[in-house]
Amino acid sequence: MRFDIDALPILEEADAVHLPAKEGFRSRNEGMMHACGHDGHATIGLGIAHFIAERKEELKGTYTLIFQPAEEGSRGANAVVKKGWLDGVDQFLSGHLGIRPNPVGTLYSGSTHILATTKIDASFTGKTAHAGMEPHVGKNALLAASSAVLNLHSIAPHGEGATRLNVGRFEAGSGRNIVPGDAFLQFETRGITTEQNHYMKEEAVRRLEGAALMYDVAIDYAIVGEGLAAETDAYFLEKIPKATASSHYITDVHDRMEVNGSEDVTYMMQHVQEQGGLACYMIFGTPLAAGHHHKRFDWDEGALAVAVSALAHILAHE
Ligand SMILES: [Zn+2]
């Protein structure tokens, strides 16, 4: 079982309209916020650890609980896989709170449309110069990056399935009378399959290089995170409704949710599936005060019992 535990660089809402601010459990770390529910995932992991410890005489098999850092930006899971923690795993369980608002008691046995993704940092380096006396001597990194941003967002969508691109951060220059000598972008690509994300990444890199060539500046880019596409095995879509039928916490079991987001858990799922094992990514229903990654994100703690109950019933089911 895998539980991601990280937070996001977001300043959490301090106004009392936000329940965690009103009730006094807003983030203690200014500028860092659990705006995706991973604090809940950590709690669910502790809950199921407690269950396993209590029932260890009855349960069969060996269980590994992975508390994974750095899911945001898709930087953590692949490192855990490379350490060997998923080697020899027969069945892999993971999941997420929310994604879309649902009543507490709702459970999705699996998910589909987890998008493959690549996260890229790009630096353009030109040459600063006096903007009045010798602008012709400068090499304008800001213009190169601007051109890159517009052209990145104009990559043709793939005809065979959904693709995404977002430039989320742009920094450049140092003052109004200086030809800007440096610029920095953070952006991401996504695709419904690993191949379609690869198409977006290749097109993006060509546009970075083309923009740099046009303005005669240097371009340096680094892939700082990646996630794959993945599907829940049909085995779990059949097993989970049966296994959880006797849970008092679970009122409504659905088949699969279309996620349309990315998750680096896909590295773990693919590793297990490639070894002949089975992998699952559930969704635990909760109402949401605001969307994921929003400063007013909040979920219903009632979903914790639903998630722990779901996992416990799956483990105990023959
Ligand atoms: Zn998340």
TrEMBL record:
InterPro entries linked to this entry: Amidohydrolase (IPR017439), Bact_exopeptidase_dim_dom (IPR036264), Peptidase_M20 (IPR002933), Peptidase_M20/M20A_hydrolases (IPR052030), Peptidase_M20_dimer (IPR011650)
Top-level taxonomic group: Bacteria
Positions of transmembrane segments: none
Signal peptide: none
One Pfam family of this chain: M20_dimer
Protein name per UniProt: Aminobenzoyl-glutamate utilization protein A
Domain Peptidase M20 dimerisation: 123-210
